[in-house]
Amino acid sequence: MRAFWFLLLLSSVAYSQVSIRHDAGQEPVVYAVGKLRKAFAEKGEKLVPASTGASTNLPSVWIVADTALPVALRPYLAQKELDALQPEGFAFRWLDGRKTLVILARDAVGAQYGILELAEHLQTNGTYKTLAAKTENPHLTYRIVKFNLPWSPYRNSPATTLHTETCRDLRFWEAFLDMMAANRLNVLSLWNNHPFPYMIRATNFPAATPFTEQEMKDWQQFWKSLFRMAKQRGIQTFVVNWNIVVSPEFAKAYHTQEYNDRSEQVKRYTRESVTQLINEYDDLTGIGVTLADWMGTFDGKMSPQEREDWIEETVVAGMKAAKRPVKFLHRSVLAGDPMAMRGVIDRAGLTEPALVEIKFNWSHGHSTPTLAITHDYHSGKLDERFWTPKPSNYQIQWMIRNEDFFILRWGQPDFIRQHITTNTHDYVNGYFIGSEGYIPAADYSHKPSAVKTWQYAFEKQWLFYALWGRLLYNPATPDSMFASAFDQRYGKGIGPSLLQVYKLASNMPLRLASFHRSTWDYTLYSEGFIEAEPSDSKGVFDRSSPFISINEFIHHETLDPQLLSIPAYVALVNQKKPAPAGKLTPLDLADASEKDSQQALTLVASLRKRVNSRSGALVSELDDAAVWSYLGLYLADKLRAGVALELYRTTGDPAQKAAAIRQLEAGLMHWDQVVALTKDRYVPTPHVTTQNYGKEYTHFSWESLRPQVVRDVQLAQETTFRP
Fold first, then answer.
1. Where is the signal peptide, in residue numbers (predicted)?
2. Percent of the chain with pLDDT over 90
3. What torsion, rounded to 10 degrees, do the Cα atoms 200, 201, 207, 211 define?
C-alpha cells in the first residue's frame, strides 16, 4: 500500500499541469510560449492549452495580445490598463488570489517579452507564483543590432572572412536571434558593400551575380529562412549597403567601374534591384543606405546634393516601384548637408517615419556619454540641423559603434543608463550597437579549453548584449536582474560581486576613449592600446607601430570636454593655476582608474575562491575582468608618466624625468600581468586595425606589443630638456 501511495505521489508530481490561453496565430507569442513550456518542463511541470469551450474557469496563464480586452476578462480588468500600454509594452496582472496570471500587451511582440520574462522568473526562482505585478513600456522604439556580413565586406581581412561559414549556418542565426529576443533587441540590420548579387538574380542584369541557379536558390532559401526566423521572434530586418558599388561580375559583364560609377546603367541596375529585392522577400522590413566613401566623399567628385540625388533616383525610386512599402534607413554619415537629406525624405512618400542613424562620437561610442563629434562631416563637427527644427517624418537613432574591445568581455550598466538618460530627446527613438571591424560569430580568439563553454563569440559576450538590450528597453532595469543572470550561470550569490567587478573593470576602455580623442575605426582600439592611424593632424603620430607611444599619448586632444589634456594641465601647473571648475585633470583620471582597478582585483581574488568544477566559464570571466583591471592600472601609470615627462620637458626638473621613468616601469609590470593572463588563453588574433604594419602586427596579442611598452621607458630615458 505504501508503494501505491508513493507511485501516486510521483505521478502527480510528474504530471503537474499549468494551463495557458493564447492566440496560436501570433508567431512571436507562439515562439515565446515554446520557451515558457521548456522552462516549466525543467521544473517538472507541463504547460497545456486551456479549455476554450464553454468553461468559465480561468487558466493559470492568460496571454492577451490585442487592443481590446477579452470579454471574459472585463469583470476583472479595465480596458484602461490595456490602453496604458505602448507598442511592445506588457503588463503582469494577477487574478483570483494569484491563481491566474494575465500578461497584457497590445501586440504580439509585447506579449512575447512578457512571456519570456515569466520564463526567466520561473528559471531563477523555481516558481512563477512570486512574479510581481508590473507594467513595462519600451523607452526607445528601435533597439538595433548592427551586424556586418563577411561576404562583400566593407572591411576585407581575415578577421572578416573567417566568419563566412558560421554566418551561412542557420543554426548560428537561430541562436543569435534567440539572444536578441531575450534581450529585447528588436531590429537586426545586416551590412555589406553590395548585397544584391547574394539575394537576387537581377532580371535585366543576370550576370551581376556569380552563382549558378542552384547556388542562387540556396542563397535565397538562406535569406528567406533568416528573415522568417526573425519575424517569428518579433525582430525586424534591414539590409544596409554602401554606395555607389556594383559586384566585380557586374563591372566585367556590363563594362562599368566597380566603385563610383554614376552611369545610367548602374542607376537602373540599382533601382531595379531594390524593387526586386523587396518583391522577392516578403519578410524583409526595410532598406538602408549610406553616403559612403565611394560616392566621391573624399575627393570632392560629388556634392552632398549630388549624393542625395543619386539615392533618390535609385534606392528611393526602387522602393516606390515595389509592390509593398518598406521602412527606410538613411544614415547621416558624411551627409555634409542635412537639408539635402531632409529633402529626399520629404519627397519619399514614406508610410512610416524614416530612420536616420548618427554615429555618436564617430566610431567610438564607448567613450563619454557627452556627444562631442559625429561622422556627418570629415571634421566631426556637430550639425544641429539634423534635429533642429524637429523632423516630422524621421527620427534619429544613435549609433554606438564598438571598435574598442573585440576580445575581452565588457559590461558597465551605469554608463549605459547615463548615456540613455543624457541622450534621449524628442527627436531620438533608438540606438544601434555593433562594430565594423568585428563580427560576433565564430570565436576565433579563445583557445579551446575546459572553461570554454560557449560556441559563438556573442555567447561569450552575453553581458554586453543583455545590458544594452534590456536598458534600451527600460533604463530602470535594476542591477539585480543582471546579477541574477550571473547567478544562473555560476552559482547563487555570486552575481552581485561579479557584476560589481565588471562595473569597475569596464571603466578602463571608456576612460581611454574619452581621454584619447579618436574618430574613424583605426584611430583607437582601447583594449589593445592601439592607434593604428591618426585621428587628426594636430597631435604626434610617429607610425613606428600601431601602439600608442608615450609621446603620442601626451600630445593628443581629449574627446570629453570635461577632461584636460596633458599639455593643457601641465601649462596650468607651470603657471601655478588651478584646474577650471568642472574639469578633470589627467591625474584625476589616473587616480580614478587606479582605484577602480584595485577594487576590481580585490573582488576577483575573493571570487576565485568560488570557482569549482561546475563553474564553467567563470574562470574566463574573472580572467577577463582582471585583464581590464591591469590595463586600468597601466592607464593610470601612463597618465602619470605623461604628466611627469611633460613637466620635465617644460621645466627641466630631473625629478620629473625620474618620476616618469618609474611610472612607465610600473606600467611595464602591469602590462606583464596582462600578458600572463592572456597568452595561454587567447591566440594571436587577426585584427583589421594592425594589418598595415607588416608581418609583426598582422595578428594582435598583448604579448606582441610588449616591446613597445618597453620602448616607452626608453623614450623617457632618452628625453632631454630643451629650454
1. 1-16
2. 90
3. 70
